[in-house]
């Protein structure tokens, strides 16, 4: 009898967990607009109260393709009082596979600890996940554009940049805990201070990277590394930090 009751409790718990895990937020939790001649939806603002958010793949039976600028922003700076004001900071987000574009500052200033970028996202705009608590991110092979400060000031320890990304903006990964990074051959342009304030010890350059002009040369925010790269024409290959000095290891 006790075993039957225990089995019933376990099954009930599993069913409840599955139901709650896969439950989308209601359409009424979002302000949105219909775009592309009535074929797609852009989320403009999250107005719900739950900090654990699952964005629906469809609203009014139309696919959600864009997360708009500042749609889930978790606060703002009060310039007069010189303080940060938090507003309903979300702790967990599930973004549907229908999304193609994640807008400017769309998830900035929240308390997210991990995020899976959906498999169809092409553009992550400036400041998209700025100032969260991210330790892990998974980027899709569809991604081509990572905007300025997109993942800056988190706690990311590891990131794999897919071979398909073409552009990585200024300070995109600044202020994290990244030690090793590989920039694939697909990347053509990288911005200034890309990995500043990271404990970087190994960097691999792809073969197609176009470095910035001299006035914006602080690619990684490490003066010793910058001097070394420019003295060696920043050729493709792996650079490692040994005893405080950067050395070219191999192609």
Q: What does it look like?
A:
Strands 1, 2, 4, 5, 9, 11, 13, 14 and 16 form a 9-stranded mixed sheet that branches. The protein has a 4-stranded mixed sheet with strand order 15-17-18-19, with helices on one face. The chain is built from 2 helices and 19 strands. The protein starts with a helix and ends with a strand. It has one domain (32-250): Leucine-rich repeat, LRR (right-handed beta-alpha superhelix) (Alpha-Beta Horseshoe). The chain is globular. It has 251 residues and is an alpha/beta fold. It has helices spanning 2-21, 223-231; strands at residues 30-35, 40-46, 52-54, 58-59, 62-67, 75-78, 83-86, 92-94, 101-102, 114-116, 123-124, 136-138, 145-146, 167-168, 180-182, 189-190, 202-205, 237-242, 245-250. 12% of the residues lie in helices and 28% in strands.
The parts where pLDDT drops under 50 for at least 5 residues are 3-21, 212-218
Determine the structural class based on helices, strands and strand pairing. Answer: alpha/beta
Approximate helicity band: 10-25%
- Rg on CA atoms, Å: 21 Å
What is the global morphology?
A: globular
Mean pLDDT: 84
Total domains, how many?
A: 1
Task: Give the number of DSSP strands.
Answer: 19
Q: Name the CATH homologous superfamily.
A: Ribonuclease Inhibitor
